[in-house]
What we know:
The chain has helices spanning 40-48, 80-94, 112-122, 148-156, 163-166, 176-181, 183-188, 201-212; strands at 13-18, 34-35, 38-39, 54-59, 70-74, 99-104, 127-132, 135-136, 140-144, 171-175. Strands 1, 4, 5, 6, 7, 8, 9 and 10 form an eight-stranded mixed β-sheet that branches. The protein has a two-stranded antiparallel sheet with strand order 2-3. Mean pLDDT is 86; it is low at 1-10, 216-220 and 222-228. It starts with 12 loop residues before the first strand and ends in a 16-residue tail after the last helix. The radius of gyration is 16 Å and the shape is globular. The protein is of the alpha/beta class. It has eight helices and ten strands.
Amino acid sequence: MSRGVKDGSAAAAAGVVLAGGRSRRMGTDKVSLRLGGEAALLWVVRALGGCGPVVVVAAAGQDLPPSSGHVVRDELADAGPLAALALGLRTAASLGAESAVVCAVDTPLLHPAVAQALLRCLGPHDAAVPEVGGRVQPLLAAYRTDVAPVAERLLATGQRRLQAVLTELDVRGVSAGELSTDPGVAAGDPALRSFASANTPAEWATLTQLFDARPAHAGSQGFLDSTK
């Protein structure tokens, strides 16, 4: 449900990286997994940099590789991605952002054009959430930063599921077809490999193969560089 009238005009934005997951199935912290000689976190922070300031939500005591992100610590143990979303959006708002592209740290193939397209899709809505590969993708989506209090209210009731916040919002669904026809996405990531993620070593190996198979004239994120 929308909580106010929004005109959909361009406004200050940010990026939010959810980096504090336990990575149980991976067996090691995902932030430091390497792709092309760099930590996964660095690829994601770089991809979101065109949105505005980038907030990195990490667990208390979690070691992070150096990056340009604004690091905040989620002190709520085992509260899941909903708590990280709330903290990330509230921090982004404190940095002057009215909207933010939120993604998990295990999506290092994220292309900047996809992030920008999601912001454009947001318009007057509370969230723009893609459906890619037959799955709704709330962990790579655009949100209004004033969604933070909604997430916090749910947390106070004991809710931990990220999908729960979507039922409280005015959500604009974004199909894979719509995303792939965005001019920037069509030029830079037509196959929407930005949504490839990894929870296990085998999935990371597949993601690495996708990176290694990028075209010879790929840009910094491993996809076609529309500026060339």
